[in-house]
Amino acid sequence: DPAVCTPLPVLGRDVTVPLVTGGEVTYAALDYAASAPALQRVWDDVAAYAPYYGSVHRGAGYLSQLSTDLFESARATVAAFLDCRADDELVFTRSTTDSLNLLAAALPAGCQVFVFETEHHASLLPWRDARVTYLDAPRTPDEAVATLEGALATRDPQGPALVCVTGASNVTGELWPVRELAAAAHAHGARIVLDAAQLAPHHPVSVRDLDVDWVAFSGHKLYAPFGSGVLAGRADWLREAEPYLAGGGASRTVSRRADGGVDVEWHDGAARHEAGSPNVIGAHAVASACKALTEEGFDRLVARERHLIEKVRTGLAGVPGVRVLSLFGDDAPRVGVLSFVVEGWNSSHFAAALSAEYGIGVRDGLFCAHPLVRTLLGTGPEAQGECGAPEAAPGEKSLNAIRVSFGAGTPDEHVERFTAAVA
Ligand code: PMP
């Protein structure tokens, strides 16, 4: 079926890399979960705008007006892509990490935060100034909902509370029951933020339908690697918080007081948290990617990705010693992200061999989700991951894992080369 087998055009398809065994080969980028290549169309849109680049919200000249229009229309496009509510605010940030740190800085006083230990560190760690309850790794989606409900039932129902949850795991690719978790949060008077860094590039995300209060994602995982991220959702906490960054753009008026100090009146819309000159090219690129994915249609994108996931799973299933990591079971629905270990191998060495001998780029380590990967590997803090872990002897536990991830630009040949190389 050509609809399922034709990848979207992306940059970097023709990059060749040398092999240690001699010769060269086209690079197989199978680390989309870290950063996906730019869609050709995003690159074209960025190039078309580049000659007209100007300052946003600052100049009276034509290029400045054009850039301001482009920036604000990018905001509207991304809000439509996320199916935001009419009164939601959408702030352009640098990344998911930045978005979640912004929300963490905007928590009301006394806010309690609930987060599963299985989260990416970007979702696990920003809540330093709040009372945080870390929830144990669930083994089924239903258990995730029950665990959250149990924890929320014990909270002070008067105070503010926030749940932070991923839509798709950056380690296992597994989908989390976001709608059910949002319903549980709301039933207990809490709010919920969705970390959609891995979900949004692969699945439609509707803020309205999932009934989440905020959503965060990164442009560079959504085929728009130009330094932009997004935080979208309820306006009230953002409006009531101190600006994330203080400076021009966030301030409406600044005046000297008689006592020598300075009075500031801050903006209350998205500008409140976008001080300084914003990344208009990054915002334009994210909007372009949102348009491209919407026009391609998520039905086709999901179908294509399922086809690739099946190929990878079938290929790995035939290799002795390979164990695919999963929290919710091998058949759980997932996006194009899959981690595994190979008995007797240090995953870092395995990943290095895939690169040096086959021209395949994957990731190894603990993937900025240390507690989750340790749970999946059945290890303790000795699993340090990134590099230098000792070779696991046959029968011993691996101390780190290998992750393969792909998406809209991945040709079948890349995953076929990958499974053949693993075998
Ligand atoms: N959340 C998840 C689930 C992720 O996979 C990542 C990136 N690996 C992040 C958050 C952080 O994204 P960024 O590095 O773009 O801030």
UniProtKB/TrEMBL annotation:
<dbReference type="InterPro" id="IPR015422">
    <property type="entry name" value="PyrdxlP-dep_Trfase_small"/>
</dbReference>
<dbReference type="Pfam" id="PF00266">
    <property type="entry name" value="Aminotran_5"/>
</dbReference>
<dbReference type="InterPro" id="IPR015421">
    <property type="entry name" value="PyrdxlP-dep_Trfase_major"/>
</dbReference>
<keyword id="KW-0663">Pyridoxal phosphate</keyword>
<dbReference type="InterPro" id="IPR000192">
    <property type="entry name" value="Aminotrans_V_dom"/>
</dbReference>
<protein>
    <submittedName>
        <fullName>Aminotransferase class V-fold PLP-dependent enzyme</fullName>
    </submittedName>
</protein>
<keyword id="KW-0032">Aminotransferase</keyword>
<dbReference type="InterPro" id="IPR015424">
    <property type="entry name" value="PyrdxlP-dep_Trfase"/>
</dbReference>
<keyword id="KW-0808">Transferase</keyword>
<dbReference type="GO" id="GO:0008483">
    <property type="term" value="F:transaminase activity"/>
</dbReference>
<feature type="domain" description="Aminotransferase class V">
    <location>
        <begin position="30"/>
        <end position="418"/>
    </location>
</feature>
